[in-house]
Design a protein that fits this description.
Strand order of the largest sheet: 3-2-1-4-5-6
Structural class: alpha/beta
Strand content: 15-25%
Number of helices: 7
CATH topology: Rossmann fold
CATH superfamily: Flavin prenyltransferase-like
Number of domains: 1
Shape: globular
CATH class: Alpha Beta
CATH architecture: 3-Layer(aba) Sandwich
Largest sheet: 6 strands, parallel
Number of strands: 6
Distance between the termini: 38 Å
């Protein structure tokens, strides 16, 4: 099946990355996961897990489809242009990681993979998570977009009448799946919900 690299960085919102991994695995995709050291700290704070705990993250039933890589493991197979992933998603994407991607810095696995994905014309989705945004952040988003990345801010909508945090998380993850052209039922689109004129 399709190959996806999911990067979880040190921005708030690690639940977005975990939910995306769950959804991709439920659709029988193999997922390569890289979590930065700051991402691990945020996961501990927000989700109460140390490291990528398959059981606590409710991923035991799909663990055979998940491969975990350290951010300094340059033997990861998707680091080469001869074996690029079909798509890469940084979810959440910190402003520091955005800056590295926008400026072609390849100091670790996530940065090198993003560089490979862009140069090979594959899909790179950056689920940026910060507020407010400085001019530097905005300019880096423009640079990344000009290089071929898709910028998908973690900005929930309310037209689908979310009742829980899960509903809001599902909306963002559903938007990522839309860009990946993967069908899902995480939320109903505007026209499905409200009809067309």
């Amino acid at each position: 099946m399709s190959k996806y690299v999911i990067g979880i960085t040190g921005a708030s919102g690690s639940i977005y990355g975990i939910r995306l991994i769950q959804e991709l695995c439920l659709k029988n995709h193999t997922v390569d996961v890289v979590i930065t050291s700051a991402g691990k700290m945020v996961m501990k704070e927000e989700l109460g897990v140390t490291g990528f705990d398959i059981k606590k993250l409710r991923l035991s039933h799909v663990k055979s489809q998940i491969r975990i890589w350290e951010n300094d493991d340059f033997e990861a197979p998707f680091l080469s242009g001869s074996n690029p992933p079909e798509a890469m998603v940084l979810i959440p994407c910190s402003m520091g990681k955005l800056a590295a991607v926008a400026n072609g810095i390849s100091g670790n696995v996530l940065e090198r993979t993003a560089d490979v994905v862009l140069k090979e014309g594959r899909q790179l989705i950056l689920v940026v998570r910060e507020t407010p945004l400085s001019l530097i952040h905005l300019e880096n988003m423009v640079k990344a977009a000009k290089a071929g990345a898709r910028i998908l801010p973690a900005m929930p909508a309310f037209y689908h009448h979310p009742k829980t945090i899960d509903d809001m998380v599902n909306f963002i993850v559903g938007k990522v799946l839309n860009l990946l052209r993967i069908e899902h039922t995480l939320f109903k689109g505007w026209r499905k919900e409200h009809g067309t004129k």
